[in-house]
Amino acid sequence: MDDSTRADFADFVAVQVRPLLGFAHALTADPHDAWDLTQETLARMGERWGRTTYDTPAAYARTVMVRLNIDRIRRLRRELPRSTAGPEVAVPADDLDGMAPWLVDALSTLSPRQRTALALRHVEDLDVRGIAERMGCSEGSVKSHLSRGTERLREHARGRGLLTTREG
Amino acid sequence: MTEEQIRDGYERLDSALHAPQDAFDRVERRIGARRRSRRIGVAAGTAAVVAAVGGYAALSMGGSDDGREGLVAVDPPPYSLVMTRPDGSTFTFDDLTISCDPPAPAGGEAGTGDKSRVYLSSPFVVDGEQVTQPFVLIEVDLAKLDEPRTLSLPIESTDGSTESLPLSVFIADTEGAPDGNEVVSSSGSTGTVRVTQASCDPTPVLELEVDATLASEEVTDAGENKQSLELEGFIR
């Protein structure tokens, strides 16, 4: 990678690492897995940076991340070195109150595909068709993942007293 | 629980983590580690095959005689795999091994051999991080190549990874300053690979024909792509 390409990729990393990390957090529900997934995604992008033209590299990076997380979750865990960089890597910025820590806890009980479908729905704001395309599965499967995943979230919410009941 | 509550939770989740200050350096190191593990890990995996199965049905063919000299009618040679550089120099890959154990990361344990992939590789001889003789690796996903099929290069995945590819061809060459050259069957490559048989049940089998020009993954100090390499031959 020549200096110009390297600088260009460095800019991409600087801008995208935070949102990618957030997306990875939603996909994995684990801070360290989130950083591993983010790092691996950026490494895959970096290997081809300058040799492959991306129309929308940020969106492509999310596609890479989703595929890595869905299709190779077990392989990823075996291959990727666990973060050895200490607590400064991908640690919680704050002690989150209310919804977010509860959500992390709840997401950890979902299957990777359920987490992925929900993240694409609520973080990427994709509809069912868009989620199906990104995940490489049928719209029916997406609906199932969304339905079951949401129901799991609600079960946790009930246990935490966070459930909002609508009357009428 | 409303959609708004869930979405609010995701928005807060999005800002819950700090990326490391040296994120870019870490990513660059990860890229380097992937490259090294691809080299060194393959060697570890290959060695494990030999140790674990004692060469059972793993195709191991010593010698470089291609059987074409002389006029005695003999069975065709079981393989011929030749790399050609742009300057016309060639290297014949000898002592090829076929195994079903996946490569292990550098320093990691050998693969578990789930028989989902079959690997063809040459001896891996390395000094530091650079090979001292050309090295070839052909990796086939058995689920995606369970019947004869001809693949046209480049062979690329939608996510840039090699794990989801039906087949990948990789060569590490000694030539290509300053630290050798690595070519793969992805972007920029041309030609075909025809896989006629690939299996891990009950023993590792891989039969194929290749006629390809493989593009380099690396660039020179001047920022230009290193040279492509031709790979031609067959494995029976």
Mean pLDDT of chain B: 73
Ranges of chain B with pLDDT <50 over ≥5 residues?
Answer: 41-76, 104-110
Say how many strands of chain A there are: 0
Distance between the termini of chain B: 62 Å
Shape of chain B: globular
- Rounded to an integer in angstroms, the radius of gyration calculated over CA atoms of chain B is 21 Å
**Helix percentage of chain A:** 55-70%
Give the SSE order of chain A as H and E letters: HHHHHHHH
Q: How are helices and strands ordered from N to C of chain B? A: HHEEEEEEEEEEEEE
Oligomer: heterodimer
Provide the β-strand percentage band of chain B.
25-35%
Beta strand count of chain B: 13
What structural category arises from helix and sheet content of chain A? mainly alpha
Provide the residue-averaged pLDDT of chain A: 76
Q: What level of helicity do the residues of chain B show?
A: 10-25%
Question: What shape does the CA trace of chain A take?
Answer: elongated
Task: Compute the number of helices of chain A.
Answer: 8
Largest sheet of chain A, described in full?
Answer: none
Structural class, judged by helices and strands of chain B? alpha+beta
Largest interface comes to: A-B, 69 and 42 residues
Give the helix/strand layout.
The complex is a heterodimer of chains A (168) and B (236).
Chain A (H helix, E strand, L loop, with lengths): L2 H26 L2 H18 L8 H15 L1 H7 L19 H9 L4 H11 L5 H8 L3 H22 L8
Helix pairs in contact in A: 1-2, 1-3, 1-6, 2-3, 5-8, 6-7, 6-8, 7-8
Chain B lengths: L2 H12 L8 H31 L25 E6 L5 E3 L4 E3 L17 E5 L4 E2 L2 E2 L3 E7 L7 E4 L14 E7 L7 E4 L5 E10 L5 E12 L12 E7 L1
Antiparallel strand pairs in B: 1-2, 1-13, 3-4, 4-7, 5-6, 7-9, 8-11, 9-10, 10-12, 11-12, 12-13
